Each structure stands twice: as structure tokens, then as C-alpha cells.
Amino acid sequence: MALFLETSTVLLRRIKDIRPLTAKRHRVKGKWATTLPKHPPTRLALQHFDATYSAQLGDLWPSVRVALLSERKYGALLNNFCHSPDLEELQAQGSAPLRLHQAGLWPLAAVNKAPQGETIWSEFWSIMPDKFGLLSYYLMDAASVLPSLALDVQANHTVLDLCAAPGGKALALLQTQSARFLCLNDSSVSRTSRLKRVLHSYAPKELLTDDKLRITSVDGTMWGEIERNSFDRVLVDVPCTTDRHSLMEDDNNMFSRSRVGERRSLPRLQAELLLAGIIAACPGGEVLYSTCTLCPSQNLGVVERAVQLAEENHGIRLQVVSLRPLVRMFQNTFHFAPDLHLGEMVVPHLAANFGPIYMCKIRRLA
Amino acid sequence: MNGSHLPSWCLSCRLLCSASDQTASVSSQSSLRLSPVLSLHSLSDMGFTESQAGQLFDSVSRLKGASAAKHVLSTLTVLFVLGLNPTSVQKLIDKCPELCMVKETQLQQRIQHLRKLGLVEGSLQRTVVHYPKILTVPVKSVKNVVQFLREKCQFTTQQVTEILRDSPAVVLEDLDQLEYKFQYVYFRMGIKQAEMVKCRLFRFTMEDVRCRHVFLERRGLYQTPDKKGQTTIINPKLDSILNVDQHTFIVDVAQASAEEYDVFQKLLAREWKEEELEHGSIEADSDEEEDDEGEEPDGKSGYKKKKKR
Ligand SMILES: C[S@@+](CC[C@H](N)C(=O)[O-])C[C@H]1O[C@@H](n2cnc3c(N)ncnc32)[C@H](O)[C@@H]1O
């Protein structure tokens, strides 16, 4: 086990936890000593990112890298439907959580700005339900609300969330109560049932009735065969390499050897999902594409491809909608990547350890 | 005795006077603690100036316990025999008055032992002046540390001598901590003994070493060498990581901002506290579902988990 052959016979590595970056899963369970694979997926992911992101982000990459490999920050999405003293308590404890304004006006922009390291979120995980059984807040990467905000749902809109589970962004959409009809889909049956659980834990029954909400579990790429030209807003929050997860957890990791094929075909799947979303939108409707990876081929690459396919194969013309106003609103809270020629991206930074989140908004012209 | 008005001096002066029976009104309680033979006279005979003598009394009177300073005179003698001058001796006692509690024979044994360990004249004196506490440590404890450095860490005799000379505080460190530090630098950072000695590794706390190293590592600027000792990048030298002030480290070595390092230090401290708590506890798998975005645990499952316990 010792590193240096010439002395390895005598120098016994006694202290166990002198390990290099090890996936959290392993650290917690302490089973790394015997079963740590030679090339754990987390390590492969890091190698991959080092190669691609250092070229893409240049001097920014070391800062992003250390943030990705360190404890992330959470945001608490406060539940407007919950009547619980927890909320005040949470605010009293020095965190300024994100509350979406009821009227559909956008947020009282207040993500936790306290210096990193002061709030231990795990202490909040034991939140108690109020007397109606609703929980007071949903913990998520604060930057994950941006796609819901960017979607800019207006009163009476019909909204489709094509890949909705486990439901963070759908919950954020629901908070504003502006959508007339919400259609939530996720191809994974188990994750769809989790989505349902989340909704029932956070939203009152009146909002979850059939005339307001539909939850389905179909392959999103086939959506065009169900419903075309019908939604005012479509959120396409696709499966991706989920960079943070890939770096920190060996379980269910896209970079494990057995999933190479799946990982390589992600951009194609993502483009198909986005295309399906575009087709599902009505003319004049808007589609928001989002991922939680920094990878250009899963981000702008996908948008370019889907736009091209929509025009060539379906005669749909599209226009990119600028997200600059949103970026300006949040530039003190999140670190945005500079000079992206298509879409916007929140990049992790130690002082604001949120993201990554990529977003691009397109409007269907015809 | 012209009027030096330092209060400490006045007090000591009076103590001295009372010992030599002039002013009976002064409480003689403190003076009783001092050896009867220790007088201003004897101190100036030894070569101390009046103010040095006063400061000496001050230092010694900080010691608690009735017979605390029993060996003060023999200690001073031993230090003089070692070749130190009154100025150094006074400073040294000020730094470490506990030396006055050590028996003469023990002191001599300890000094002898340090000589045997290779601290030659000159180094020996510098080490003692710089870190007088080393003479409060029993020979046996020093032997243990030395044996540990030789056997567990494979430092050569010569290297051990250098460690004692440059970082004498190792003799008081917990051996487990010491082993952790050594192994961390050896295995994680891939650094050989000679370089550790050259960079005076043992002068730095584990927290400092780890924090700077992990910061570099997570920024992609430091790699653990593979079995052949190779890395795909050129690691910065241990010397340039440790022996520079924080600003230089952040800006020149890590190429980061002070804000980032500040946050990082806090985060890492917390990470390690958490790990220490978890250390060794092997928990059963919780029934987590697969989770793409890592947004678990949401409020609900957290609540359930709590309730189960
Ligand atoms: C990034 S997650 C969505 C997270 C969710 N929007 C939220 O905010 O909680 C991607 C989801 O896409 C789903 N998915 C994967 N392939 C799909 C497909 N072909 N059609 C629909 N959903 C799919 C996965 O099951 C996964 O739940």
C-alpha cells in the first residue's frame, strides 16, 4: 500500500484517512480501505473535467475546481403555502433564504449571503411540518431556482416541465401560483413518485387538482406524439453529467466504466428532449433549456443542434431570448461565466458556492 | 541602588531587602519561597545587573507552589556552565521559569543526552535558548520521540539531530499527531525525509500543512505522485508552500484571492471536524433513491430520518 517502493517494506501506512480526494460516499462509510476501486468514477470525472474545463474556462478553472470539490452551499426555498414558525426561526438564524413572491413578481432577492461556513444546513433538515402537514422549506442549490425564474411564467400560462423529478424547479414554479395549468413529466417512474411526494409535502391539495396539474411518466423525447404547439412555457431541465455529483459520489455516477456509452450519448438525448420541448411549445411560446454541468457540448452544443433540427426538420423558427436582465439581478449572489455566446451559466466559486447551472432561453416564432 | 522606578524592580528589591533583614514591614511570604542563599548580592556575583536580577525574581515568583523554585540556584549554575551569559539566562528563565523546578542532576542528564543526540556546542546552546522547555522534558520522553523518528519515520541519525535543533518542540508533541503529520506529508504529498528536514516541516501545525496542501490540490496545482513517484504536473516545492507568508502563498503559489482562501480555511476546518466525528463509525446505508442533481436530502426525507432514530 505504501507509495514508494524502496521503503515500502518498512514504512507502514498506519493512519488510514490520509487519502487523496475520495468520494464522500466512501469517506462516510469508511469502506474505502478495502473496496476503493483503482479508478473510482469520481476520479475519472475529475480527469475528464481537468482536460475539458481547463481549456474552456482557462484561468477561471482552478477557482471553479476548488469550489466544486468543496462543500457546496444550499439555499432554502421557502414554502409560501406553509404556516410555520420555522421560517422566522430560519431567518433569525442568520440565513436569508430565497422566497418567491406570491404575486408572481419575481423574488425578494435574498439568497444566503452570510459568509460561507456559518450556517450548517443539516441542522435545518429536521424541519417540522405545519398543522396541515406542509413543510416549510425545500433545500436546493440556490442557483437551481434560476431556470424557474428565467421561464418567466405569466398569469394563465400553461407550463410543461419535461424532466421534472425530483421537483425542485416545479416547486419553485408552483410557489408563484401564476400558471393556469402545470404539466409535470419524468420518464423515471420511481422518480416521478418521488416528485409526487415532494409536491404533496409542500403544496396544498387545492393546487394539485386535475384541472391544475397533470403528472406523467413518459419518455420526453416522444412528447411531440402526444401534444404539439400547446404550451406557453416549457422547461427542459435535462439529465446531464451533474458535475458536482460526478465529482463527489461514486454511486450512480455517470463516469463509471459501465456508463461510458450512456454518457457519450447524453448530448444526443439532450438535443432530442429540447427538440421535443420546442415542438410542444406554442408559437410565441418560450422554452428554457437547463443543465447542471459546465460542459459545452451538453450546453450550447445542444441548443445549437436542437435549433438546427427544429428549423431543418420541422420548419420551426426560433429566436434566442437574452437572460441578461436576470443575470444583472443576481450578479451579486452568483458567479456568472463571462462571455458565453449563447445562454448564461452560473459557475461555482468558493465565495458563492452554487451551481453549475447552464440556461438558455429560446422563443418559438412560428 | 539609584531609583529605578520600574514597579517590578521595586518589588523584587524589597523582597531581596527583606531577605537580608532590613525592612521588617514588608511581607516576607514571597521571599520565603526563594532559596535563602539567593540574594541580590549572589545574583550580581553571578554577573546579573540589578534590573536583570529584578526580572529574574519576577519570573521565578510567577511559579506556583511552596517549593517551586527550590532549584533556582543550581539551575542558574548549570546554565552558566553550559556557557550562556547572564542576559541569555535571564531571558531564558523568563520564557520558562519551570526550569527552576528541575533538579540539577536531571538537568545535567538532559543536556548530556542532547549532546549524545548530536547537538554540538553552539547548536545545543541555541536550541536551549530558543526553546528552553526542552530541558523540562524527561530523557525517556525525548528517547521515545527520537526512536519514533528513527524507526517509524526512517529519519537518519543526522536528520533527527537536525529536527531536534530546528524544531525542538517535537519532543513535546503527541506521537500519534506526529505520525499523522509525517505520513500525510510522505504519502499524500509524496515528500521524502530529506526535504521534510530541510523545510523544517515540524515547525508547522498539521492544520497549516493540510490547509495549504489541500487548497493547492483542489485547485489542481498539486498531485500525489504515483507509484513511480511521477505526476502529470510539476508540484510546487514544499519549501515554497510552507516557508512563505500567507499572502505570498495565496497569490504566488495558489494564484487565488484572499477571499477564496479565507472561505476555504473555514470550510476545511469544518470538513475535518465532521470527519473526526464520523471517524470509524460505519453506518448502515440509508434507503436513498438515485439522485441526479444531488438535491437530497429535501425536507421530507430529512424529517423521516430524524424520526426513525
Ligand atoms: C436534472 S434532473 C431534473 C431535476 C428537476 N427538474 C428538479 O428541478 O428537481 C433530470 C431528470 O430527467 C429525467 N429523464 C431522463 N431521461 C428522460 C427522458 N427521456 N424523458 C423525460 N425525463 C427524462 C431523469 O429521470 C431526471 O429525473
UniProtKB/TrEMBL annotation, chain A:
The name under which this protein is listed is 5-cytosine rRNA methyltransferase NSUN4
Q: Does the keyword S-adenosyl-L-methionine apply?
A: yes
Q: Which SUPFAM superfamilies match?
A: S-adenosyl-L-methionine-dependent methyltransferases
The opening ranks of the lineage are:
Eukaryota, Metazoa, Chordata, Craniata, Vertebrata
Which biological process annotations from GO are given for this protein? rRNA methylation
Which Pfam families does UniProt cross-reference here?
Methyltr_RsmB-F
Which reactions fall under this protein's catalytic activity?
A: a cytidine in rRNA + S-adenosyl-L-methionine = a 5-methylcytidine in rRNA + S-adenosyl-L-homocysteine + H(+); a cytidine in mRNA + S-adenosyl-L-methionine = a 5-methylcytidine in mRNA + S-adenosyl-L-homocysteine + H(+)
Annotated SAM-dependent MTase RsmB/NOP-type domain ranges read: 64-365
Principal place where this protein is found?
A: mitochondrion
Q: What GO cellular component is one of the record's annotations?
A: mitochondrial large ribosomal subunit
Swiss-Prot/TrEMBL keywords: Methyltransferase, Mitochondrion, RNA-binding, rRNA processing, S-adenosyl-L-methionine, Transferase, Transit peptide
Top-rank taxon of the source lineage equals: Eukaryota
**Active site: residue positions:** C292 (nucleophile)
InterPro entries associated with the record: MeTrfase_RsmB-F_NOP2_cat, MeTrfase_RsmB-F_NOP2_dom, RCMT, SAM-dependent_MTases_sf
Q: Extract the GO molecular function terms from the UniProt entry.
A: RNA binding; RNA methyltransferase activity
According to its UniProt entry, this protein's organism is: Cyprinodon variegatus
Q: Where found in the cell?
A: Mitochondrion
Q: Locate the coiled-coil region(s) and give their ranges.
A: none
Family according to the record: Belongs to the class I-like SAM-binding methyltransferase superfamily. RsmB/NOP family.
Claim: Transit peptide is one of the keywords in the record: yes
* Binding-site positions, S-adenosyl-L-methionine: C163, A164, A165, P166, G167, G168, K169, D186, D219, D237
Q: Which PANTHER family match?
A: 5-METHYLCYTOSINE RRNA METHYLTRANSFERASE NSUN4 (PTHR22808:SF3), NCL1 YEAST -RELATED NOL1/NOP2/FMU SUN DOMAIN-CONTAINING (PTHR22808)
PROSITE patterns attached here?
Answer: SAM_MT_RSMB_NOP
UniProtKB/TrEMBL annotation, chain B:
What is this protein's record name? Answer: Mitochondrial transcription termination factor 4
List the lineage, top down. Answer: Eukaryota, Metazoa, Chordata, Craniata, Vertebrata
**GO molecular function annotations of the record:** nucleic acid binding
- Please give the superkingdom of this protein's source: Eukaryota
Family designation: Belongs to the mTERF family.
Acidic residues bias located where? 284-296
One Gene Ontology term from the biological process aspect of the record: termination of mitochondrial transcription
Q: Which UniProt keywords apply?
A: Transit peptide
This protein's GO cellular component annotations are:
mitochondrial matrix
Q: Does the keyword Transcription apply?
A: no
- The reply on keyword Chloroplast is no
Q: List the InterPro entries hit by this protein, alphabetically.
A: MTERF, MTERF_sf
- Region of interest (Disordered), residue spans: 275-309
Originating organism? Cyprinodon variegatus
